[in-house]
Amino acid sequence: PTATPTALPTYIPTAMPTTTPTAMPTPQPTSLPTPPPTQLPTPAPSPIPTPVPTPAYVICGASSPTTVNIISEMYLSCDGQTFFTYYLFGVYGTLSVTNVDDDDGLSGIELPNLRWVQGDIYFSSTNSQLHTISMPMLTNVSGYMDFSYVDATTFNLDSLDHVGSYMQFRYADNFAAFAHNLSFPKLRAVDGAVLMHELYYLEHLHAPQLETVGDYFRMYGCNAVRDLSLPQLASVGSYFSLSNCAGLETVELPSLVSVGSYFEVYNSGAQPSRRLLSNDIEWSRGGGVLGAD
Q: What is the pLDDT of residues 116-145, one digit of tens each?
């Protein structure tokens, strides 16, 4: 018989597993820190004036006396508020400008509507940039008026009529910058003293309506003064003294009839004469005319 061949099994290849490629991580970009923005300092805001109703007049210290401070060319402070200098009409208390530095940039003080001060005016140690002090409508100061260490080149006090205490101009820091002329065209009375002290570049002092000085009148160390004109001055309560005013050439006192103590001209160019002083001066405390080179 024919042998039947044994059927060999069909070879089925083993399926090789498909290798999944390893996913490589995508590198993340390095995150650099964002620098914080530079903080610029916020400039201080300019003072905002408190609205003032029409009419635009402010009377400072109406409830109780206060100190009015001039803080810039445009603004002043009083009663805890800030106003335009233009609005100031009257002051109960003290009008003050003190210890002003050059850095403050204050070059002028103009108070065009100020009429009266029931108290004092005190300007001291203002900066070298302050050129103008103007109060053209001011008529009455019940206390003193003191300008010490002030270099202003121009003063406007053209309406000033009365000062209730003393009036003083002295010690300009920058002597050459100080006003060369002081004029008080309407001033009639100073109840206290009048003192002009070491104003080396002052050349002219005119007070054509001044009639009375309650205490003394003294001009000292004003070497550049050429003329002193007080044609209406009739009475000086204490003494009248001109000393160390070497450049003095003319003194006009034609109405002076009463001096409480003495009249002195010392180390000054002009010497007193009966013609200058009048023929009928009353020396209420036994004084007289003194003169010396």
A: 999 999 988 665 667 788 999 999 999 999
Place of tokens 């300092």: 41
Helix (H, G, I), strand (E, B) or coil at 250: strand
- d(C-alpha 127, C-alpha 184), whole Å: 24
pLDDT tens digit sequence for 177-203: 566 788 899 999 999 999 998 887 788
Cα 109 to chain centroid distance, Å, stands at: 6
**Secondary structure letter of residue 177 according to DSSP:** G
Q: Residue 49 is encoded by which pair of tokens?
A: 């004036």
The pTM assigned to this predicted structure is 0.74
Count CB neighbours of 213 within 10 A.
28
CA distances to 37, 260, 266 from 216, in Å: 67, 9, 16
Q: Are 146 and 124 in contact (CB under 8 A)?
A: yes
Asked if 140 contacts 165 with a C-beta cutoff of 8 angstroms, the reply is: no
Amino acid at 103: D
Three-state SS at 87: helix
